[in-house]
């Protein structure tokens, strides 16, 4: 994916010189609380360096920086499925707290969906959202995702058993 200019941000490839921004914006409990436990907290420079070492080598590229005001302020990715799920991917994203409330993630999700459908050949993109994160549900709904169901007590996060809401967007099949 080439660099994509959004209204208030840019989606672009991660670079090794993003390490300081990544560590600063990712080291936030409010961000960590809404992502998988693989995302460490506290988030250190070492974590940032390890992550960037991996994502800058990806083929195909499926993880991108969300650049806001000249800073790598967040991330958006597609976790590609395999075997019988090879035409599906899970979308994941986070944005540094100083940039919340500006509509950035909604635009980024739309751009990633288009990339997934048109460049990666996907037909289904889904997300699992913790019940305590209605803002993320709203982002997905604005991007055309539909609620497929609620997975009761399906995740243990921050010491709490929590429901997850399963959202998906399906590529329209041409007749």
Offer a concise description of the structure.
With 175 residues, this protein is an alpha+beta fold. It is 27% helix and 34% strand.
Describe the structure.
By secondary structure, the protein is α+β, with helices and mostly antiparallel strands. It has a single domain, classed as Gcn5-related N-acetyltransferase (GNAT) (Aminopeptidase), CATH 3.40.630. It contains five helices and eight strands. It has an eight-stranded mixed sheet, sandwiched between helices. β7 and β8 form a beta hairpin. The mean pLDDT is about 95.
Topology diagram in text:
Blueprint lengths: L3 E2 L4 E4 L5 H8 L2 H4 L12 H11 L7 E6 L2 E10 L7 E8 L8 H15 L5 E7 L3 H9 L3 E12 L2 E11 L5
Parallel strand pairs: 5-6
Antiparallel strand pairs: 1-2, 2-3, 3-4, 4-5, 6-8, 7-8
Question: What tags apply to this protein structure?
Answer:
175 residues, 34% strand, single chain, globular, alpha+beta, Aminopeptidase, eight-stranded mixed beta sheet
